[in-house]
Design goal:
single chain; 254 residues; alpha+beta; D-Amino Acid Oxidase, Chain A, domain 2; 2 domains; four-stranded mixed beta sheet; 10 strands; elongated; binds flavin-adenine dinucleotide; FAD binding domain; membrane
């Protein structure tokens, strides 16, 4: 299939979405689509990728606000419980980020009322260290979000390549991973840098050279992404272990 007709098909497919963060780039005679539309990417779906898989736990996240300054040291604080863990870290003199990961067999219904979400999060850690509860209580309702955690394993030979006929995916659109190693956004940025470098070097060589550069990107990044996705999933399973012998124990470290 020629690139023009392929790109027209992508455009037709995504037309049902009001706006999509993909770049349609025309440089000289070269046309490409870069799909960077996140975990539910229609571009990835169009390329044949499967839906990301729910891994059995969800996360709450929020930002505690202290207009007069917070009392916390600049370090990451982790608290581990049974099938439940939390953490908080100052991100500025007046803001403290926090998260809770908790086991749930299914993501459950979508809750749109932010005050209900915050209460649900507080209920999970009612008797946990007061520093955590303080940060959560200082969080405006509308900055609390709940996310079912998902990933997609890029099995060699079974999963489509990241690029095909002038269309390429980056970041979560290609490789959603659980946040247990804190690498999803880092990898999305790395993807962008690697792809940009390869395209810059290839663009003068025309469409064939650009196609080769995108394939090269796909292979190079796969070698980093696949093991990270698997490791992150495994670490999550271990950290979310809900063995009854394992009770709440706070660990604090930088
Ligand atoms: C609980 C949790 C904690 C995390 N912690 C970390 C961490 O510590 N470190 C780390 O590196 N990563 C972390 N991540 C992962 C990180 O958030 C993602 O990997 C990263 O945001 C992916 O970037 P992206 O640009 O590929 O996708 P996104 O950030 O999802 O960006 C995609 C964009 O596309 C937009 N979009 C999608 N579809 C449409 C549409 N139809 N119309 C309009 N706009 C659309 C979305 O609104 C969004 O703005 C965490 C994730 C979670 C869930």
């Amino acid at each position: 299939m020629g690139h023009c007709s392929n790109l027209k098909m992508v455009a037709a497919y995504v037309q049902s979405y009001s706006f999509l963060p993909f770049a349609l780039i025309y440089l000289s005679l070269v046309q490409i689509v870069i799909g960077c539309d996140g975990v539910r990417s229609p571009v990835a779906k169009w390329m044949g990728f499967s839906e990301p898989k729910y891994v059995g736990h969800c996360a709450f996240r929020g930002l505690g606000i202290y207009p007069g300054g917070h009392p916390y040291k600049a370090k990451v604080n982790y608290i581990y419980g049974r099938g439940l863990r939390a953490g908080f870290v100052p991100v500025s003199p007046t803001k403290v980020y926090w998260f809770i990961c908790f086991n749930r067999t299914s993501p459950g219904p979508r809750i749109s009322d932010p005050s209900v979400l915050k209460q649900e999060a507080l209920n999970l850690v009612r008797s946990w260290p007061m520093e955590l509860l303080d940060v959560m209580q200082n969080t405006p309702d509308d900055s609390v979000i709940k996310t079912p955690l998902v990933d997609r394993w890029l099995w060699p030979g079974l999963t489509p390549s990241a690029s095909s006929n002038g269309v390429v995916v980056v970041g979560d659109a290609w490789h959603p991973m659980t946040p247990n190693l804190g690498q999803g956004a880092c990898c999305a940025l790395e993807d962008s840098v690697v792809l940009a470098k390869k395209l810059a070097a290839a663009i003068r060589g025309g469409q064939d050279s650009v196609d080769a550069a995108m394939q090269d990107y796909s292979q190079e990044r796969w070698a980093r992404i696949f093991p990270l996705t698997a490791r992150s999933n495994l670490v999550g399973s271990l950290l979310q272990w809900d063995n009854p012998l394992y009770s709440i124990c706070p660990f604090f470290f930088c």
